[in-house]
Amino acid sequence: MTTPTPTASEHRSTDDPRITLDEGVGVFEPIPPYPPRTEREAEFYTLGDGEMFINMGPQHPSTHGVLRVVLKLDGEKVVDLDPVLGYLHRGVEKLCENADYHQTISQVDPLEYVSSLFCEWSPVMAYEKLLDVEVPRRAEYIRVLSGELNRIASHALFMGWMALDLGGLTPILWSFIERDEIVEMLAALTGQRMLFNYFRIGGVNGDLNHEFMSRLGDWMSRATQQIESNISLLNANEIFVRRMRGLGVIDTATALRMCMTGPNLRATGVPFDVRRAHPYSVYPELDFDIPT
Amino acid sequence: MDRAFKRRLEGRFAERLTGPVRQRHDETEIRIAAADVTDTLRTLHDDPAFGFEFLSDLAGVDTGTYMQVVYHLWSDTTSDWLRVIADGLSREDPRVPSVTFLWKGAEWMEREAYDMFGITFEGNRDLRRIYMPPDYTSFPLRKDFYLADDSARSPGAGVRHMERVHDPRNSTPGNTLRRARA
Q: What does the alpha-carbon distance between residue A270 and residue A292 come to, in Å, rounded to a whole number?
């Protein structure tokens, strides 16, 4: 272990990617190096009595995806925070503006790589509306089928990850079993495990095949029981329930004022599910509940 | 149902509409002037006959000749969708009143529209860039944004992957090009 440590005075090429510790690369000062641009920024970056700033991220184990949050603390209590976004901004709109309609389908896939079929679905539907293209019913059913499978995989992963962040290792392994089966199914259907690039304007890339159907039948025969045991693993766990119950309760008025969507809005009692509130594809014909 | 909804809109906002109430698929669309945004959206939000309490999305649009701000609203009581378009903002200085007094969540949507199109939302108390870096100078989704030119002026210009940033301001291709021309 006799690697010579480079000193600051030592001349190095500008192309040398090595970073020495005293350079301060990647050190984020919580307070921005320019005067406040808005009223809110001026208010946030003024410290009250006994308050302090802590910078969290942009690389931090608890921030999935690159997000930086400046926290204002009073003792151990977070009294205010300023999220700094844009570290993951890839300019997808601009990319799509400079691409063909069909090319954009693969551009939007990685926006949400866990349930990427839904990211394909919305632009494809927009193009169909703009071009007045009618989608065959079979294609619509294939879309719903593959999309809902993708949704189950995504929810399974969400539950597992949530438990993992609370320190439980088992649920993530269990939910990865479900997810892997679904992902294999979709791989048989689309040819890809993650970024499917499956939907097309006016339909889908390929028809249902034997491997997909047999895997689907296989999985469905035991899926309900497995998903229920996954749920009971969390709901019957006292540590999990005690940590989650009564946490971050939001009332309906606040949720609407903050423009919340999805499960968070439904949890406050508003039965807003886009499949019902703004029916598309063959969802009006299907029977399902909206949990609120 | 949609016809009745259309009549209600026309009856209530007759003098404010700058175009006909349009219907396409299951979406209804009205066009108003930027000055009427505050009153119209407040009526749509507060009036129990409409009850548009949910702002689904807010977006800026650059048509090439003028700018628009589009509000997508959903009503919990009648489950109608409504698209409100604040039309005819000038491209030189697009200004529209903020709707953050009705929806606090619109703050970030307006920040995004400002960041991408340079639309000023009067009354938003946190109107700063949201995605692009603070020292970025152009508005990338405007139609007069020329990709190669403007990206060469941005802070990340000329930085290759795995390359250290030393003095990006003076080593961008754009600057080199400009120096060579001068």
A: 7
